[in-house]
Amino acid sequence: MRNILLLQGANMSFLGRRQPELYGTTTAAELDTLMHAHAASRGVALSITYTHMEGEAIARLYRAVAEGCDGIVMNPAGFLYAGYALRDCLRALPLPCIEVHMTNIEKRGMRSVTIEACAGAVIGFGIQSYLLGLDAVLAVVDAGKHTGRSDRGAQALSDLQSQVF
How many alpha carbons lie under 13 Å from residue 8 in its C-beta half-sphere? Predict the structure, then answer.
């Protein structure tokens, strides 16, 4: 079974309550239920982490590598502006990440600093961005693209695992 981590950045735990005119009224709990159902329909084990602290996000990503995670779907949310340490962490990971945003951040004049370290992005489709993001990361994993197990070698994975706590 493939294992995927959904990492939710700063402010995402207030989904459904924070700026519903932009992000809709679906709550974080409702999104989690939807994502678990979508993952189960694809034979995927999904872990979901919410954090308001960039250091916690980085620690969770390194722990995902140690746990044998196959890929990441991430909404950096509030980290998209200045998450350079998060971006550097993503660059070091031997597994793919798909960045998701519910709104079209480009249309809103925002640029993500983390997106360049990701295999791809899904932007502007509301809650659907998450479902599409999960499907995208599975396509990348299944194609054998950007996985440390195949194109960066076992040494990179071993090096990262030795750095985790």
Answer: 20
Active site residue 84: no
Tell me how far apart the terminal alpha carbons of the chain are, to the nearest angstrom: 26
Closest to 152 measured CA to CA, from 97, 98, 114, 95: 95
Q: What is the pLDDT of residues 12-68, one digit of tens each?
A: 988 878 877 877 789 999 999 999 999 999 999 999 999 999 999 999 999 999 999
CATH number of the domain that residue 21 is part of = 3.40.50.9100
Which one of 50, 101, 130, 146 is the catalytic residue? 101
Q: What is the largest CA-CA distance in the chain?
A: 47
Q: Any catalytic annotation for residue 38?
A: no
Contacts of 61 (CB under 8 A, 6+ apart): 5, 7, 72, 86, 89, 90, 93
Distance CA 34, CA 133 (A): 13
Q: What is the pLDDT of residues 112-153, one digit of tens each?
A: 999 999 999 999 999 999 999 999 999 999 998 654 433 333
Cα-Cα-Cα-Cα dihedral of 137, 152, 75, 138, to 10°?
10
Domain of 6 in residue numbering reads as 2-163
Structural domains of the chain, count: 1
List the structure tokens of 27: 């709550």
